[in-house]
Design brief:
The structure is a homodimer. The first copy, chain A, is of the alpha/beta class and about 325 residues long. Chain A is built from 13 helices and 14 strands. Chain A has one domain: CofD-like domains (Rossmann fold), CATH 3.40.50.
């Protein structure tokens, strides 16, 4: 069966965090039939800033799948202007979180609708549709979960750590505040048990910062296994380092070896297969589950499609 | 005594609404020594929109006195961009209230500080200073007062009437929701009893929409009279019509003759003198208080200074 034919069958769920995960999702969206991709997104990074409900990973996913991501910056929206932030600075307001004028509209409108009583699932679905996204983007939960980073400088809210402090303080531990009392969003749970589902992919996002917040929600692991389809993780670690972001740094700070083996072990009991980078081929023999080798660096659109196809092929092999 | 010498003595308080009043305030600021002008601003137009605390008259005053008013539009800020509103529209958000990207920063920062527990007086004072305004701009009250317009289409919140419906529905009555329980802001009351105060001016704003909300606050009339200085009103009606805005239309709808005599009568017991437009000179004899004639149209900067000087001269005559 060719990859093209495979791609035409059934739905795929991806569990993802921010930029790296969004690249895989874009690859998936491009090779799957329209509407076949359901993306469950980390909301542990969400925070309130300037009175606005900001959801960085949902927005990265949304902008990426809508073709609106800012390629120059690597984050935020394209065709952006910065008048708001410039004036906010002149007024003495907090400018460490860089909010563009276009990006701001999304935060303001989402906040307005949340305050009016809508769920984050509902608002996200509608805004995605309005921006022309054919995939379904959904938060992991409609209740707040907040990733708190315990560091050598004390405990920091995620964005304080990630943006304001640029991941500089060493990480001692992580806490997903609210996760105990959060529920898996109904749309996310439904996506995982759809009869036509054929694979669940765990994107190459930071396992500790971006995937663990979802896994900390009671019932999320069970929901991911409920459909009985193969669950495949794509490695976020290539040749001992992270492609982007602080994954390897955090792993070392937590006393973990920054190796795909560590990530694979971290997902034990959850995943059925692992997409390993071909640069780490020698590690395949040490893994006790099915592995597929792939060049997992995603610089071009074709790279994103290649990694997506590789993960789906592994899932098809295991189905 | 020449106007220049007069202008060097003591402080002046202006009670004002929006655009027309801000023109007089700019004239006053230009002829008075720096810091001598205290502006008490209507907040009956304030409303919450998109979760933001928006204060249109405070902002008009602030932008005008900071030299940041948008001369092309006649409202809002100069050097404005509109990315936010364009994107908000694409997201299906409400765009009837035109928020520019620069203007938005003021609303967001003010809202943030109000939510953190600051008073509107404190936030306004600090933001004015940051924008380089040498005069003191202060709200009439730190408690919410909301102008509700009873119309032939039912009762409308002020901005619904003024912006969304463009003042089209006929006005039956006005109500200043919250005024009964509001207090005159302490800074405003202090400004009115400053020992060096020499005049209080009522700007040529709409008496019913922009000045009455302040006068409806218990103690405001007494506060304006407390310093024992002349209180002077500048006519908002010239030759039977309003220079700008719906004043004359509303007066007719309320069964009032759109004449300076009606305005003068409306302020009876509060004012000691009246600046009448020279086009209405024939009405001076019908007024039972001191009147000074002036060309009150304020198109140029010199016009604004002339009207300001005329009002101060009348106050000096009555001191």
């Amino acid at each position: 069966m060719s990859p093209q034919t495979e791609a035409a069958d059934g739905q795929v769920v991806a569990l993802t965090g921010g930029i790296g995960g969004a690249k895989l999702c874009l690859g998936l969206q491009r090779i799957l039939p329209p509407g076949a991709l359901r993306v469950i997104v980390n909301t542990g990074d969400d925070f309130e800033h300037l009175g606005l409900a900001i959801c960085p990973d949902l927005d990265t996913t949304l902008y990426t799948l809508a073709g609106l991501a800012n390629a120059q910056l690597g984050w935020g929206r394209n065709e952006e202007t910065w008048t708001f932030l410039r004036v906010l600075e002149s007024l003495g307001g907090p400018t460490w979180f860089r909010l563009g004028d276009a990006d701001l509209a999304l935060h303001v409108e989402r906040t307005r609708r949340l305050r009016a009583g809508e769920t984050l699932t509902s608002v996200t679905s509608d805004l995605s549709r309005r921006l022309g996204v054919c995939s379904e983007i959904m938060p992991m939960s409609d209740q707040p979960v907040r990733t708190m980073v315990d560091t050598t400088d004390g405990e920091l809210a995620f964005q304080e750590y990630f943006v304001r402090r640029r991941c500089e303080p060493a990480v001692i531990g992580l806490r997903f505040c609210g996760a105990d009392h959060a529920q898996v969003a109904e749309a996310a749970a439904q996506a995982c048990r759809a009869p036509s589902l054929r694979a669940i992919l765990i994107a190459p996002s930071n396992p500790y910062l971006s995937i663990d917040p979802a896994l900390a929600i009671p019932g999320m692991r069970e929901a991911l296994r409920a459909g009985g389809v193969p669950v495949i993780a794509v490695t976020p670690i290539v040749a001992g380092t992270a492609v982007k972001g602080p994954t390897a740094k955090i792993m070392r700070e937590l006393g973990l070896s920054p190796s795909p083996l560590t990530v694979c072990e971290h997902y034990r009991g959850l995943i059925d297969g692992f997409v390993l980078d071909e640069r780490d081929a020698r590690l395949a023999a040490a893994m006790d589950l099915p592995v597929r080798l792939c060049d997992t660096l995603m610089q071009t659109i074709e790279d994103r499609e290649r990694v997506a196809r590789c993960a789906l092929e592994l899932a098809a092999d295991l189905a």
